[in-house]
Amino acid sequence: MKRLIFVYNANSGKVNAILDSLHKITDPSTYNCNLCAITYGVFSEDELWKAFRENSDDEMEFYHKDEFLKAFASKWLPDFSFPVILSEINGELELFLSTEELNEFSSSEELIAAITKRSTLD
User: Fold this and answer.
1) Could you report the per-residue pLDDT of 28-85, keeping only the tens digit for each?
2) Which secondary-structure segment (H or E) carries 6?
3) Residue 40's beta-bridge partner residues?
4) Angle between helices 47-55 and 108-121 in degrees, nearest 10
5) Distance between alpha carbon 79 and the CA centroid of its chain, in Å?
6) Cα 82–chain centre separation
7) Which residues pair with 62 in a beta bridge?
8) How wide is the angle at C-alpha 111 spanned by C-alphas 70 and 22, nearest 5°?
């Protein structure tokens, strides 16, 4: 079992959550976190994603961008773009799914398939 670290391209906090929801409604084509858009609708978590997350054998942790940068602050931390999914193996962070890969997905089904496929390769 490995740990997957999901980092949204959004900052934490209620005000930011409200602004993100409004952005998803008013101009979804310019919303800058496809990981957020796929796993969470405007008001609630995607049901298929939630079931996958709750039943996965992999440990999963979720961070907003500001929380991740604070929790993993180090001069040796690679310069990741967000959103991103990382894997932690033996205390080392490795790229699991890049921003570019995440931006190609249009549904939670596609995200789940990619995670499942990549997990079987490890």
Assistant:
1) 666 578 888 889 876 788 999 999 999 998 899 999 999 999 998 876 677 888 999 9
2) strand 3-8
3) 45
4) 20
5) 16
6) 8
7) 6
8) 65
Q: What is the pTM of this model?
A: 0.84
DSSP 21-41: HHHHHH-GGG-S-HHHHHHB-
**Residue 86 gets which letter from DSSP?**
E
How far is Cα 85 from Cα 54, in angstroms, rounded to an integer? Answer: 17
Distances (CA, A) of 81 to 51, 88, 105, 115, 120: 27, 17, 16, 18, 25
The span from the CA of 65 to the CA of 118, in Å, is: 23
Summarize pLDDT for 41-53 with one digit per residue, the tens.
Answer: 767 889 999 999 9
